[in-house]
Structure formats: structure tokens, C-alpha cells
């Protein structure tokens, strides 16, 4: 019988619990110092209150079970079931061990042992299962088989206390474990809001963003300053992101496009977790329209198979789905921004590193600034939309399932054809948008380059009265960029109009086909279909922006990838080769030019004979203005491209003082040392 099975089950649970608690008790006795443990004075007032509440709940549950056994024995003159006896013994044992552990816990820790947490979680789930079976049999007209255990008064009375025990213990175990004990005794006291709460946050804190509470509380009390902002976690630093990107780049094959694959390879783990949250959010958002037909039919009384419990179950499912949708959406959005920041930091460091390696590259200053300000920002923002690529067909698939269930095959098939037609019609517009965006970026590079040169040489322009001429040149470049931008915005407007009208078009076609085939339309089916169209509107509305973001991101990635590949194909600087001879610099015949990428290969500097500079020599380069003295020095330090010749070898270190000094904002010592130690 069910009673015999439950008695046997309780007896096995009691045996396992006794063995586990005994082993934990022995381990705890060995871990304690001779003088006993440290009390919970350092655990904080919140954890002290929770400790006492957990102990009180265990005592109350033990009293409930023990009182029932006494009532069965003395009042009713019957022997209580063995299942209740074993349950009472389990709770008494758990209560005694909890009180002992509370007094003897080591180091002021507020964590509970795994055996207690496991028992509290297990008992809560078991009570929830039995109470659910009891409520379903009570409200439903179709009773479940007798093989399922039924709930009793003790389960209803102790269930709230068990749930509180479960959540309180999980909260305390998931919280930060005494960070004060890990700090040096003589370290400077750190501001509470400056700690890296994100890296040490537990599951509940990450789920509800409780790790932000210290900053929010500080901001509510006073104006936030820079020292109030928490430090950046180690996993989110630019150094970590750059190292992951470089490691992923080394794993890529050069014949493929390495940069997109390397970016995905560097963030694939958080991207997969983010995709899981996006999928949960989508599935939970479609659960409501899927079950709304059942709920409406239940309200109209058409489904008389089940009782009132069926409605309560549907209401609980709606509540659970909406809660899951909200939580997963918050995690999805936060994770997408987090991945975008990592990618943006890694690409910025990569571009900066490459620009330091090859200053004489064909890329202008305006183009590099555009890389950092526009292209890198756009690639980082793309991870906000990346899951829309696979979520859109998934959402359409779920919508078709709901429409097929409510409206039939004809209406769902017509809705699918309409959606595909709208998507296909966007292909030529998307290609035109990508081409126009490339033109916009080229025009913007030219404008920024001209603006930077004008501002840099403003004194010369004023001296020669060239302000109007250069102003007209800047206006011309600006008008050219504006013309491409106007055509690009017209194309975006056409795409936006097409897809803003598509949800209405899909719903009109679906309901029109239902009327033609005389499909039955009830209040539940119509409401479910309208809710489905309403949810489907969001991905369709976001599709123009998604297409635009994909095209813009592709252009930005191609630009940055060409820049990195161009830098890698450049000849390297002269190497600092150690040699035992007296030769310090060995200059071979060759030709050098500043315009290495231009069609004209006229050299700026031509060295027609071999030159050797010996150790200890002092050499002066003399010549008229424009004869190539500075270019000759730049060829030695590798700052001017070589178009032919053997090159220059430097044996030892080099130092260069330019004509135009670059003075940093700082002391003379800092300018001389330039970041190095004395």
C-alpha cells in the first residue's frame, strides 16, 4: 500500500540522514579549535536574525511533528504511523544539529552545511508535491490514482516554515563569505561601494542584481563620486578581453576571415549563456498566447472535464511564465551589454596596438579615429541584436504552431507565406543599405581627416588667410557625406515602412483566409491569435534595425580587418640585433617613400650607397631645407615605408628626439622617464 511505501521511504531517509549528520559532526569536531568556535558576531545583524529565525522554524516543525505523535498516542489511544515517527525523529535530529552548528560555526561564517540545506530543500519539495496532489484531487472532478501520496494537516502547517528555511539557507550560502577575513590586517579600510561585489555575488544576487545595492544606497544618500564607483572585475578588464581575443586569433586559420571567428571564439561561453536566457524569454512569452484559448474556454464553461483547480493551475502557469520572462529578459539584456563592452575593449586595444607598431601606414589619423569612435562602438552594439538572427525564425515557428492550433492549417500557411514575402522583399533594400553605408564611412573618413589637418595647422591658415578656402573645402566634403546619408536614410525609411506594415498585413491575411475556408472562430481562438500577432510584432518591428545593424557591423568588421591585415603585411621595423663588432648602424642602399599606398612610386628618400656607423662615432646629417634629413632619420627608426632595397640594421637600442617635442601634462621627471622607473 501507499502507507507502507511511505513508511519504508521515511525509514531509509532517516537512516541516510543519521549517517550524513554523524559524518558532518565528526568533521566539524576536528575542524574546531580547542577553545571552541567563533560566534556569529562578525556575520552582521541580518545574518544573526536569519540564524535565529532558522533555528526557531526548525524547533516549531519538530514541535508540530512531536505533538502529532503525542496526540495520536494519548488522546486517540492509537499508535502513530511509523512514517510520522521517523519524520519527527528526522526533524528533531536536524534541529539539534542546527543549534549545535549555530553555536560552533568557525570564523563567524554564516553558511549552513550541505546536509541541512539538502534536508530543507528536499522536505520543501516533498511537501509541495503532496499538497499539489491534494489540491488537484480536491478541485478536479477526475481524481488521480491512489499511488500518489496525499497531504495531511502537518504538511499544510509546516510547509510555509519549510519554504522559509529553504530560501533563507540558500540566500545565506549564496552571499559573500566574510571578505573581511581575506584582507590584510594592516591594509587601508576600503569603501563598501568600491568593492567588486559582482565577482563575489551569489546566484540570488546575480539573478536579482542585489550586488548593485551598495552603489544605489550610496547614490541615494549622497552624490556619487569617482571613488564611490566599484572597481572593474578582473573578468571585465580590457587586458583580459584583449588576451582572449589574441588567443582566439592565434587559433584561426589565415585563409578564412579571422576577425569575426576570433571575436565569437573569445566570447562564446557568455554568448551561449546569453542565448539560453534569450530562448527562455522567447519560450515563456509565447506560453501565454498558447494557453489563453484554454483559459477562455474554461471561463465560458465549455471545458467541464476539470473543476476549479484547472483554472487555478492555468493562473499559476501564467504567473510563472511572466516571472520567468521578466527575469530572463533582465539577464539577457545585461549579458548582451556585458559582451559588447568586452568586445569593444578588446578591439580598441588591438587597434591602438597596431597603430603604435606602424605609424607610417596608409591609414590616416581620421580613419583610425573613426575606427575607435564608430566602428568599434557599432560592433559592440551588435551583440545586443545578435540573437535576433536565430530568434526571429524561432519566434515565427512558435507563432505558426499557435496559429495552426487555433486557426487551422490554411490560415497558418498563409501567414507563413506573407511573412516570407515581406522578408524576401527586403533583400534588395538591405544590399543597397550596405553599399550606401560603405560610401558614408568613406566620406566620413575624408571629412574627419581634413578637419583634423585644418585644426592642427590653424596658425598657418590664419597667417596666410586661407580660412575661407579651407572652409569651402570642408563644406564640400560635408555636403558629399550628407548626400550619401540622405540616400541611406531614405532606404532605411522604406525598410521601416515595409516592416511596420507587415504585422497588420499578416493578421489581415490570416483572418481573411479563415473567413474564406469557413474556419470556426471563437473568442478564445481570436484572442490567442491577436496575442500571437502582438508578440510577433516586436521581432518584425526590430527586423529593419536588425538588418541595418548586420550590414553596418559587416562593413565595420571588414574595415577593421583590412586595417589589421594591412598592418600585418607591412615590412617590419629594423630589428635591434646584438652584434659583437664595432658597427652600430648598417644602412644598405634602398628607396623610401611616405606614400606607400599611392600609385606613384616616386621615392621620398633614395640611398644609393652602403653606410656604416661605428660605435662611438658622432654623426651629423647636413643639408638644405627639404633635402630629406628628417626622412633619413625616420628610415633608421623604421617610421617611413621602404619600397625596395635591403633595409637598415641597428645593433643595439635606439632613441629619437623629434623636432616638434610632445610634452605630456606632468612634471619634467615624468616627461623624461616617459613611464619608466628611475
Automatic annotation (TrEMBL):
Gene3D superfamilies from the UniProt entry: ABC transporter type 1, transmembrane domain, P-loop containing nucleotide triphosphate hydrolases
InterPro entries: ABC1_TM_dom, ABC1_TM_sf, ABC_transporter_C-like, ABCC_6TM_D1, P-loop_NTPase
Major subcellular location class: membrane
Keyword Transport: yes
Protein name: ABC transporter C family member 5-like
Gene from which this protein is expressed: LOC105037330
Domain of life: Eukaryota
Domain ABC transmembrane type-1: 272-552
Classification via PANTHER family: ATP-BINDING CASSETTE SUB-FAMILY C
GO MF annotation list: ABC-type transporter activity; ATP binding
Keyword match Transmembrane: yes
Subcellular localization: Membrane
Amino acid at each position: 500500500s501507499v502507507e507502507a511505501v511511505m513508511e519504508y521511504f521515511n525509514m531509509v531517509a532517516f537512516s541516510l540522514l543519521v549517517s550524513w549528520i554523524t559524518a558532518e559532526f565528526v568533521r566539524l569536531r576536528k575542524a574546531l579549535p580547542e577553545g571552541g568556535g567563533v560566534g556569529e558576531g562578525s556575520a552582521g545583524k541580518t545574518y544573526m536574525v536569519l540564524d535565529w529565525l532558522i533555528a526557531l522554524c526548525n524547533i516549531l516543525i519538530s514541535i508540530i511533528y512531536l505533538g502529532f505523535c503525542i496526540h495520536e498516542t494519548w488522546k486517540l489511544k492509537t499508535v502513530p504511523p511509523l512514517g510520522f515517527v521517523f519524520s519527527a525523529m528526522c526533524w528533531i535530529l536536524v534541529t539539534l544539529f542546527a543549534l549545535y552548528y549555530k553555536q560552533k560555526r568557525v570564523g563567524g561564517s554564516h553558511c549552513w552545511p550541505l546536509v541541512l540545506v539538502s534536508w530543507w530543500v528536499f522536505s520543501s519539495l516533498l511537501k509541495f508535491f503532496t499538497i499539489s496532489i491534494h489540491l488537484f484531487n480536491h478541485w478536479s472532478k477526475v481524481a488521480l490514482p491512489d499511488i500518489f501520496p496525499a497531504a495531511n494537516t502537518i504538511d499544510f502547517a509546516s510547509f510555509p516554515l519549510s519554504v522559509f528555511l529553504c530560501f533563507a539557507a540558500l540566500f545565506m550560502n549564496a552571499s559573500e563569505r566574510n571578505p573581511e577575513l581575506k584582507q590584510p590586517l594592516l591594509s587601508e579600510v576600503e569603501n563598501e561601494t568600491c568593492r567588486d561585489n559582482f565577482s563575489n555575488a551569489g546566484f540570488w544576487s546575480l539573478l536579482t542584481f542585489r550586488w548593485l545595492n551598495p552603489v544605489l544606497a550610496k547614490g541615494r544618500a549622497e552624490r556619487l563620486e569617482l571613488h564611490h564607483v566599484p572597481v572593474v572585475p578582473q573578468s571585465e578588464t580590457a587586458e583580459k578581453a584583449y588576451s582572449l581575443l589574441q588567443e582566439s586569433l592565434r587559433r584561426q586559420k589565415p585563409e578564412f576571415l579571422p576577425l569575426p571567428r576570433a571575436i565569437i571564439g573569445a566570447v562564446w561561453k557568455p554568448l551561449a549563456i546569453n542565448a539560453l536566457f534569450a530562448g527562455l524569454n522567447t519560450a515563456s512569452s509565447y506560453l501565454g498566447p498558447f494557453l489563453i484559448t484554454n483559459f477562455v474556454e474554461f471561463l465560458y464553461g465549455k471545458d467541464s472535464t476539470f473543476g476549479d483547480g484547472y483554472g487555478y493551475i492555468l493562473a499559476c502557469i501564467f504567473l510563472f511564465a511572466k516571472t520567468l520572462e521578466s527575469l530572463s529578459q533582465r539577464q539577457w539584456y545585461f549579458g548582451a551589454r556585458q559582451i559588447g563592452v568586452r568586445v569593444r575593449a578588446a578591439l580598441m586595444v588591438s587597434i591602438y596596438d597596431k597603430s603604435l607598431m606602424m605609424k607610417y601606414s596608409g591609414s590616416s589619423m581620421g580613419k583610425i579615429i573613426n575606427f575607435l569612435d564608430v566602428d568599434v562602438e557599432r560592433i559592440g552594439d551588435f551583440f545586443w541584436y545578435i540573437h535576433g538572427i536565430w530568434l526571429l525564425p524561432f519566434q515565427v515557428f512558435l507563432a505558426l504552431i499557435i496559429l495552426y492550433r487555433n486557426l487551422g492549417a490554411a490560415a497558418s500557411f498563409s501567414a507563413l507565406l506573407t511573412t516570407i514575402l515581406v522578408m524576401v522583399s527586403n533583400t534588395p533594400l538591405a544590399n543597397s543599405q550596405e553599399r550606401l553605408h560603405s560610401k558614408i564611412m568613406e566620406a566620413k573618413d575624408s571629412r574627419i581627416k581634413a578637419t583634423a589637418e585644418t585644426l592642427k595647422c590653424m596658425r598657418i591658415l590664419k597667417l596666410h588667410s586661407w580660412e575661407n578656402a579651407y572652409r569651402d573645402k570642408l563644406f564640400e566634403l560635408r555636403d558629399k557625406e550628407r548626400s550619401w546619408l540622405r540616400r541611406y536614410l531614405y532606404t532605411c525609411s522604406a525598410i521601416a515602412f515595409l516592416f511596420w506594415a507587415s504585422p497588420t498585413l499578416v493578421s489581415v491575411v490570416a483572418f481573411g483566409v479563415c473567413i474564406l475556408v469557413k474556419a470556426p472562430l471563437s473568442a478564445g481562438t481570436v484572442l490567442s491569435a491577436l496575442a500571437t500577432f502582438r508578440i510577433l510584432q516586436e521581432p518584425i518591428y526590430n527586423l529593419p534595425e536588425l538588418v541595418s545593424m548586420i550590414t553596418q557591423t559587416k562593413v565595420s568588421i571588414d574595415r577593421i580587418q583590412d586595417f589589421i591585415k594591412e598592418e600585418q603585411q607591412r615590412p617590419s621595423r629594423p630589428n635591434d640585433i646584438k652584434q659583437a663588432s664595432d658597427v652600430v648602424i648598417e644602412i644598405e642602399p634602398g628607396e623610401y617613400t611616405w606614400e606607400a599606398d599611392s600609385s606613384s612610386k616616386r621615392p621620398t628618400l633614395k640611398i644609393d650607397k652602403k653606410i656604416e656607423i661605428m660605435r662611438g662615432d658622432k654623426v651629423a646629417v647636413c643639408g638644405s631645407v627639404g633635402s630629406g634629413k628628417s626622412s633619413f632619420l625616420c628610415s633608421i627608426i623604421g617610421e617611413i615605408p621602404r619600397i625596395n632595397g635591403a633595409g637598415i640594421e641597428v645593433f643595439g637600442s635606439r632613441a629619437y628626439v623629434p623636432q616638434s617635442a610632445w610634452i605630456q601634462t606632468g612634471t619634467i621627471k615624468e616627461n623624461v622617464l616617459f613611464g619608466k622607473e628611475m
